[in-house]
Amino acid sequence: MNKKFTPISELGEFGLIDSLLKPNKYTNSSTIMGTGDDAAVIKYLKNQKCLISTDMLAEGVHFDPTYTPLKHLGYKSITVNISDVCAMNGMATHALVSIGIPNKYSVEHIEELYSGIYLACKNYNIDLVGGDTTSSSSGLIISVTIIGEPVFSEVSYRSGANSKDIIFVSGDLGGAYLGLQILEREKQVFDKNSKAQPELEQYGYILERQLKPEARVDIIRELKRLQIQPSSMIDLSDGISSELRHICKLSNVGVKLFENKIPINKETERVALELNINPLVCALQGGEDYELLFTAPVKLYEKIKKIDSITAVGHVTSEPSKIELINSSNEAIDLTEEGWDSFVPR
Ligand code: ADP
Ligand code: MG
């Protein structure tokens, strides 16, 4: 391999920014001025709410560069932010990307990162309108700020769940966590024997769930088409049991989940068993699935359940912060703090 790597110092900060921004294109009519001036200019309708969120990914904390391709990392840094806007029942429109770059990264590396960023922007119709670039004395840092607009005049907060509402989730759960376990396992094999080839073929689905998560804009579009505003919504970045605690706390309610309703992909189940982990625990506690969880009144159940890849997993109760799992023998397992720990094998 004689691939040429250009040290960042050869281009300098401004040269690097110019090079990174060369492929940048705008597609939203609300973008008046993107990058290139002191601030971006975006047109927002008067009296319309604007959604803003930011998320930071730090090397060694949120990603391991030894098994995270830079293009995937760039893609994921955008989609996890879009997911936050979706979780308010909104659609993202604009992004700002700030990066801290350690010496060991070349211009080509950062361009690879940006190829993923641009791909996500294209797939989700997002305009990249600004950012900042600096060197970093530790690892690579990527901070993305996302801007979007609510689908309806009202947004869906975590605080809106009502007793008896049905709880829905999109997609399936636990895959991203297992993808990470496989990547960690292969890394350890490689650390011991650098000639070892990673065995990843049978893990396509869960690896994609971990490395290249998508934001569920399709669900937001469907809810809009059906004119449904969820009473509460959250995205599953930390695992459903943890996210439900937020909903319960802020809505002052409890929840009942049904074990046999929790959606688990076949590959997720197979790999969990292979690794001696209970698939249900992966689904309830595993993070980074970036699916949507929302609540809606019972009367909307028939309409919502017809949406592709949506599953009703339980319902809201009036007992504040009580999280219960009903297992296949119809027994209630208390997942509220203490109960939870005894349930999870460690
Ligand atoms: P300033 O001196 O105002 O901070 P910069 O020289 O840092 O301006 O940035 C020049 C332009 O390039 C600005 O519009 C800024 O938003 C954009 N920009 C800088 N770094 C990035 C980046 N990493 N990704 C996207 N846009 C960037
Ligand atoms: Mg700057």
Strand and helix layout:
Blueprint: H1 8-21, E1 31-33, E2 41-42, E3 51-58, H2 70-86, E4 90-101, H3 107-123, E5 127-135, E6 141-150, E7 166-170, H4 175-192, H5 204-211, H6 217-225, E8 232-235, H7 240-251, E9 254-258, H8 266-274, H9 279-285, E10 292-296, H10 301-305, E11 310-317, E12 323-326, E13 332-334, H11 338-343
Parallel strand pairs: 4-5, 9-12
Antiparallel strand pairs: 1-2, 3-6, 4-6, 7-10, 7-11, 8-10, 9-11, 12-13
The structure holds adenosine-5'-diphosphate and magnesium ion.
Adenosine-5'-diphosphate (ADP) binds at residues 17, 20-21, 35-38, 97, 99, 128, 130-133.
Brief overview:
By secondary structure, this protein is of the alpha+beta class. Helices cover 35% and strands 23% of the residues. Helix 1 packs parallel to helix 3 (107-123), helix 2 packs parallel to helix 3 and helix 4 packs across helix 5 (204-211).
How many helices in DSSP terms?
11
Order of helices and strands: HEEEHEHEEEHHHEHEHHEHEEEH
Global mean pLDDT: 94
Q: Would you count the extended β strands for me? A: 13
- Report the radius of gyration as a whole number of Å: 21 Å
Shape: globular
Going across the biggest sheet, name each strand in turn.
8-10-7-11-9-12-13
The N- and C-terminal alpha carbons lie at a distance of 44 Å
| Strand residues, percent | 15-25%
Describe this structure in words.
- The relative contact order is 0.15.
- Helix 4 crosses helix 5 (204-211).
- Residues 338-346 have low confidence and may be disordered.
- The longest helix is centred in the middle third of the chain and has 18 residues, at 175-192.
- The strands form three sheets. This protein has a seven-stranded mixed sheet, with helices on both faces. The chain has a four-stranded mixed sheet with strand order 3-6-4-5, with helices on one face.
- Helix content is 35%, strand content 23%.
- It has 346 residues and is of the alpha+beta class.
- The protein is built from eleven helices and 13 strands.
- Helix 3 links the parallel strand 4 (90-101) and strand 5 (127-135).
- Bound molecules: adenosine-5'-diphosphate and magnesium ion.
- Adenosine-5'-diphosphate (ADP) binds next to helix 1, strand 4 and strand 5.
